[in-house]
Amino acid sequence: MVISKNYRFLLRLAIAMSVATAVLGLLLLHLIGHHAQFVPLWGQESMATDLIVFSLGFGFMLSWTATKMTRQALQQKKVLPLHWHLKSQTLIDRLPAHTLHRAFMLGLAGVVLAGIMLLLIQLKHIEEMPYQEYLVLFVMHAVSLAAIVTVMAVYRALGDQIPKHAVVEQKNPLG
Known about the structure:
Elements: H1 5-32, E1 38-40, H2 47-75, H3 99-123, E2 128-130, H4 131-158
Antiparallel strand pairs: 1-2
Helix pairs in contact: 1-2, 1-4, 2-3, 2-4, 3-4
């Protein structure tokens, strides 16, 4: 079974972004190092603070990076553009065309993902979690965030209109 260029690109990028996000997230948690043996759900030094700030920041960076890499791959003809018309109005089509605006919106989508997870934890009446279990939860969230944001950013970037370098024809001054 042959996988198309676009799917191969998407899989490679999503896996690379997921691994990098998980590793950087763990390094960031160890660098901050403000958690005791148990991590509370809410508060200044809590799961909520870590997950929401991480999701906004990394969601933004993941989207920006994935969009730039996809546009570069489009220009180098490593992937094929999608011939969508934005009239279909799917969620991905409604993302902004400007890279920074899109990155901000996908960063907010990461915050929504974190918020849903925090509310589900609260519904289970968990007020605090052992630090080692929190690390596993954090890595699972980081991988999910990276995969979701990367897929959305790549698909939107594949539908972008890539500006082509204009070739200016010069008139022959002699004729």
